[in-house]
């Protein structure tokens, strides 16, 4: 049984993680974390997340009040809160699964460096399918080399703050690493409109032909299920920096 704390339970992604975790026998939610002053502080996280029922875990506005009860914190919130959670997890030696995006390069370094102190995973995308796609893109980029011009199109809801998406950047990093191309040789295009959960299209433009590798999420539940799988995986391992590839076994 893995004991977790979930941040920002009113957030769309975090609410789905609450739901997905409650459906599993190997995860127990011990509490939630929300900003001070919100009307759901002190209430059951099941009600705060919109489950329509209590699950016996309250939402706090101070992570230190409950951090001792968990194995790790699951956080898909905003940059500022994520960085605060990171420091507390390091202080209390608790695992940290972070799915937030939009960090600065310096903040990215801080997150990755935490893997030397605690079980740490920074995953812009916890979908199993997206992470398989990432592997396929690396193989394609390596094989095609200079024969292809690579461009990425990512489509998300109008509420998404960062562009390009964290997933698009991770896909580009994989292709750049495998092909030896610099990151700035890959072009990004972002669309933020409506309520599109997430779509990523990668184009390999060659002379006389083009290849497209795409992923489309029809809702956010695939990410919530993947986050739960990642939490269980991390709880079974010690200090280290982990990825979804570790969880999937790629």
Share of helix, binned: 25-40%
Shape: globular
Euclidean distance between termini CA atoms: 25 Å
Alpha-carbon Rg, integer: 19 Å
What does this structure look like?
With 250 residues, the chain is an alpha/beta fold. 36% of the residues lie in helices and 25% in strands. It has helices at 12-22, 45-48, 79-92, 105-113, 128-144, 166-179, 221-235, 244-248, and strands at residues 2-7, 27-33, 59-60, 72-75, 95-98, 119-122, 149-156, 187-192, 198-206, 209-217, 240-242.
Write the layout of secondary structure elements.
Elements: E1 2-7, H1 12-22, E2 27-33, H2 45-48, E3 59-60, E4 72-75, H3 79-92, E5 95-98, H4 105-113, E6 119-122, H5 128-144, E7 149-156, H6 166-179, E8 187-192, E9 198-206, E10 209-217, H7 221-235, E11 240-242, H8 244-248
Parallel strand pairs: 1-2, 1-4, 2-3, 4-5, 5-6, 6-11, 7-8
Antiparallel strand pairs: 7-9, 9-10
Provide key terms for this protein:
250 residues, alpha/beta, 11 strands, single chain, 8 helices, 7-stranded parallel β-sheet
Brief characterization of the structure:
The chain is an alpha/beta fold and 250 residues long. Helices cover 36% and strands 25% of the residues.
